[in-house]
């Protein structure tokens, strides 16, 4: 058995032998040759001109880093990146309340049940079972639904708010409220604006979406066409329903939600002998469009004004057209869906897309049936503004199955789901 011989045991002796090595024979010859060479002038040395710190600085050699530490650090970095990605993916991003967005699900009512449906595939699912549920509408962030539940015997309705999947339905109106006509979420989704009848008079209410309370707005006269002002819902637009049952002399107003102060946008006296209807906010809250009937014949014009009532502009109509009523604004605020009428009656009414800036009369889209100008909420732009979902009516006023107006091709088609309720399209983050 041999004893292990290690190199480090012999290293001192080897170093000593190298240190004691004799000087080479050529050393004296080199000294003789270099002695005859003149010394380099002092001005040629960089130290005379440059700071010594610059000349003497040397590249710092980084110490060796253990590979194990590098591997652990790399692993931890990967874990952090993956974790951040999973966290971001698990959080529900909400779309802006106004402006274009990506198309989500369509909600509708059929036979007393509430459905959601993918408009592309046509696959639908029941999210709220009936009976008596009608006209669901999405919140602006697409996370909740508001709908009316009608008693099948008395016809009296209650407004409910539920999550997007139909869970946690919450009653937000009292049993005593009657004659519910319209409702819509505030931009932040915390409240619901409700038009209903109180003691036989049209009135407007604001109900908390969580069911914690409801209050009536103190507004003068008969109130109609209430709508939140974009983008923050600080005001509510409304019209008086006329000095009498004829509906003439209609003024346009806005009430401050916080303090209840009412400001006049267009006085009722400005419309003496005429009828105004269906005012619409632009998505940025800077303009208002409305229809105005001149009181003689079928003439109906679409006007656009600023939020303070100035800058009145009448949108153009083809020379042979006789009526043009505003229906709904695009999400980008540049176009307006109108119902345009021609001589010959109901069958001649057409859908038209008109630029809001008044630069032209736009283009028309053929569709089955006609527009019911009384059902002003029955047509809604898709969040991406590429199409419009609506519910046409026939000559007798009966609703037909929903159709989709394709703005790219200028055509219409019946949707694959059967519904005659108000259309509402969920907004999703682009």
Architecture overview:
The chain is mainly beta. It has a domain of 116 residues. Helices cover 12% and strands 36% of the residues. The strands form seven sheets. Strands 3-2-1-28 form a four-stranded antiparallel β-sheet, with no helix packed on it. The protein has a four-stranded antiparallel β-sheet with strand order 4-5-6-7, with no helix packed on it. A four-stranded antiparallel β-sheet has the order 8-9-10-11, with no helix packed on it. A hairpin with a 5-residue loop joins strand 14 and strand 15. The N and C termini lie far apart (80 Å).
Secondary-structure blueprint:
Blueprint: H1 7-19, H2 27-35, H3 52-56, H4 67-90, E1 102-110, E2 113-117, E3 124-128, E4 133-138, E5 144-150, E6 157-163, E7 170-171, E8 178-185, E9 191-198, E10 201-208, E11 214-216, E12 223-228, E13 235-240, E14 252-256, E15 262-266, E16 275-281, E17 287-293, E18 300-306, E19 313-314, E20 323-329, E21 335-341, E22 350-355, E23 363-365, E24 379-381, E25 387-390, E26 403-406, E27 411-414, E28 424-428
Antiparallel strand pairs: 1-2, 1-28, 2-3, 4-5, 5-6, 6-7, 8-9, 9-10, 10-11, 12-13, 13-14, 14-15, 16-17, 17-18, 18-19, 20-21, 21-22, 22-23, 24-25, 25-26, 26-27
Quick recap of the structure?
This protein has 430 residues and is mostly beta strands. Helices cover 12% and strands 36% of the residues.
């Amino acid at each position: 058995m041999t004893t292990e011989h290690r190199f480090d045991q012999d290293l001192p002796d080897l170093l000593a032998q190298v240190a004691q090595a004799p000087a080479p024979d050529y050393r004296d010859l080199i000294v003789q040759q270099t002695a005859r060479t003149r010394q380099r002038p002092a001005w040629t040395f960089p130290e005379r001109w440059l700071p010594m710190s610059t000349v003497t600085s040397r590249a710092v050699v980084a110490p060796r880093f253990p590979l194990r530490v590098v591997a652990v650090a790399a692993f931890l970095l990967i874990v952090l990146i993956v974790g951040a990605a999973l966290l971001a993916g698990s959080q529900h991003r909400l779309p802006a309340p106004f402006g274009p967005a990506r198309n989500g699900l369509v909600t509708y009512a059929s036979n007393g049940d509430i459905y959601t449906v993918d408009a592309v595939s046509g696959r639908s699912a029941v999210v709220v079972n009936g009976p008596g549920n009608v006209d669901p509408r999405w919140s602006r962030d697409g996370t909740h639904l508001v709908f009316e539940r009608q008693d099948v015997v008395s016809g009296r309705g209650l407004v409910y708010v539920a999550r997007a999947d139909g869970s946690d339905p919450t009653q937000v109106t009292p049993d005593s409220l009657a004659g519910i006509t319209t409702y819509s979420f505030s931009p932040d989704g915390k409240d619901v604006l409700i038009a209903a009848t109180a003691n036989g008079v049209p009135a407007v209410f604001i109900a908390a979406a969580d069911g914690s309370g409801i209050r009536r707005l103190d507004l003068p006269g008969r109130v109609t066409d209430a709508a939140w002002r974009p983008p923050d819902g600080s005001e509510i637009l409304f019209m008086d329903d006329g000095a009498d049952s004829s509906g003439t002399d209609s003024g346009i107003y806005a009430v401050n939600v916080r303090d209840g102060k009412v400001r006049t946008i267009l006085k009722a006296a400005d419309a003496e002998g005429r009828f105004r209807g269906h005012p619409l906010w632009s998505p940025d809250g800077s303009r208002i469009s409305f229809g105005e009937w001149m009181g003689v014949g079928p003439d109906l014009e679409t006007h656009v004004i600023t939020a303070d009532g100035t800058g009145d502009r009448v949108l153009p109509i083809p020379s042979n057209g006789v009526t043009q009523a505003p229906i709904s604004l695009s999400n980008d605020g540049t176009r307006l869906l109108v119902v345009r009428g021609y001589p010959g009656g109901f069958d001649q009414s057409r859908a038209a897309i008109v630029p809001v800036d008044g630069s032209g009369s736009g283009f028309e889209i053929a569709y089955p049936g006609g527009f019911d100008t009384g059902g002003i909420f029955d047509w809604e732009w898709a969040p991406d503004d590429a199409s419009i979902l609506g519910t046409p009516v026939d000559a007798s006023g009966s609703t037909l199955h929903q159709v989709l107006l394709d703005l790219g091709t200028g055509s219409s088609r019946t949707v694959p789901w059967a519904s005659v309720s108000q259309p509402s399209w969920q907004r999703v983050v682009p």
